[in-house]
Design goal:
It is globular, with a radius of gyration of 26 Å. The longest helix has 21 residues, at 176-196. The chain contains 25 helices and no strands. Helix 9 runs parallel beside helix 12 (176-196). It is mostly helical.
Length: 462
């Protein structure tokens, strides 16, 4: 038994991907846990660990004990040194440290980003100055920060991160398993950026690579949960909604076990988005109502906005525009906090949908047209296609045949660029010919929206 018990920071260091500057030897901490120390258990209870988690940490269940007694030889006299040695090797690798950089990371990143994009790619691949985990992590962070404002830049920065991670050595990362984690994170960000930009096949391949590196790494549970989240987002984009829900649930369970309430909320929003797409709107509302109280608005205001945005979407889908409008006005200040151009455009788009459903067709047209122009200027083809359908529905309801035909004609090349398939293009062309036939035209618009749903489902949450 130890004379000095581990601190809360020691406990955190054992179960998280980063350790404090002064940390007790990880294997020794693990060994102390195995004694079932009641004092440490009490301290962890005070820190917020639930009983079930503590029981799994400190004790075998009675049933486990009974089975072991029946099937295993007596425990007395067993040599546990090999097991502890293996645990120590694993934990030592997990808590390894990067090799110090000769030049501050910020200076390296600034020097890299001053080059042309082609030269940035070349240097990230070939220049040993940039082949370091800290550089890769910084590029991943910068890529994530621009996910709403500039998806193409997000992808470029993610590619730089992936290339610097690939160029890293085990010496720079501290050891081979930490290097695998770095590469997993690089490929993960690259895959997510590809998804955001609509390159789904390439995104799938990148996330497969991320999974392969993760399996060869430290087995960090937080890394696994994050990868499951990215896979859930991709499966939603691919129209595999039930699989997306299962992946989000799995990630959420890992976060719950680790006490990561905020990240668990993220998976609930993700699950709600997929549920909306398969018509389980009430279930989506329940998920969002559970998620919102868990979200820290200062840590991730974008997530809170995504939850509110999708709650409004639920009310629109349920044919409850009054409730949608009420929540929209409650959330409007939150929308205005963001300077991200795509968020402001989505706000305008949603306002147009609500106004349309409330029958304010002139105001709806103005908001939808403005949103469509903004998406067009941003090069977001899918959003242009979807807003075009909402505009078309306004023109159908107001009987503006020529405006409907013009909107459809402008949408045709955009739909073709999205490679939506012959049946979708056929329905779009039929919409142009259905001018003056309100019921048929609205049915075609509904069909087109349904066909585009797999691509559109994660548009409010990058």
């Amino acid at each position: 038994m130890w004379e000095v018990h581990p601190t809360i920071d020691d406990f955190k260091a054992l179960f998280r991907s980063t350790a404090p500057a002064q940390v007790l030897r990880p294997a020794a901490v693990a060994q102390h846990f195995l004694t079932g120390c009641s004092s440490c258990r009490k301290r962890l209870e005070n820190a917020g660990w639930d009983d079930r988690r503590l029981d799994r940490l400190f004790w075998l269940s009675r049933e486990d004990m009974r089975r072991a007694a029946e099937t295993e030889p007596p425990w007395e006299g067993h040599d546990y040194n090999p097991a502890f040695a293996a645990a120590e090797r694993t934990l030592t690798a997990f808590f390894g440290r990067d090799k110090p950089l000769d030049v501050p990371c910020a200076e390296l990143i600034a020097a890299l980003l001053r080059l042309s994009e082609a030269e940035q790619i070349r240097h990230a691949t070939e220049d040993p100055r940039f082949a370091h985990p800290e550089v890769a992590r910084c590029l991943i962070d910068q890529s994530h920060q621009v996910r709403y404002s500039d998806p193409r830049r997000m992808l470029h920065l993610a590619e730089l991160a992936r290339r610097t991670a690939e160029a890293c050595s085990s010496d720079a990362a501290g050891n081979e398993v930490r290097l695998a984690d770095v590469r997993s994170r690089g490929w993960m960000q690259y895959g997510n950026a590809l998804r955001v930009c609509g390159e789904l096949q390439a995104a799938d391949e990148a996330l497969v690579a991320a999974q392969r590196f993760r399996d060869a790494g430290t087995r960090d549970p937080l890394l696994r949960a994050r990868l499951l989240e990215h896979l859930a987002s991709l499966r939603t984009y691919q129209g595999k909604f039930q699989l997306a829900i299962e992946l989000a649930d799995h990630a959420g369970e890992i976060y719950r076990e680790l006490g990561e309430c905020h990240n668990q909320a993220s998976t609930m929003v993700q699950k709600a988005i997929a549920s909306i797409q398969i018509g389980r709107t009430e279930e989506a509302i329940r998920s969002l109502n559970r998620a919102i109280p868990r979200i820290d608005p200062e840590e991730n205001p974008h997530l809170l906005l995504a939850a509110c945005h999708n709650m409004i979407r639920c009310y629109i889908d349920l044919g409850l525009p009054d409730q949608a409008l009420s929540l929209y006005f409650e959330s409007r200040d939150l929308y205005k906090e963001f300077a991200d151009s795509t968020i402001l455009l989505r706000t305008e788009w949603q306002e147009g949908q609500i106004l349309r459903d409330l029958g304010h067709l002139g105001a709806a047209e103005a908001a939808l047209w403005q949103a469509r122009q903004g998406f067009l200027e941003s090069g977001l083809a899918l959003e242009v296609a979807l807003v075009s359908l909402d505009l078309a529905s306004v023109y159908v309801r107001t009987g503006r045949v020529e405006d409907l035909k013009r909107t459809v004609a402008e949408a045709v090349p955009i739909f073709r660029a999205l490679r939506v398939g012959r049946e979708v293009l056929k329905a779009l062309l039929q919409l142009g010919q259905a001018a003056g036939q309100e019921q048929k035209a609205l049915e075609l618009i509904h069909t087109l929206n349904t066909r585009l749903a797999p691509l559109a489902s994660n548009s409010t949450r990058k």
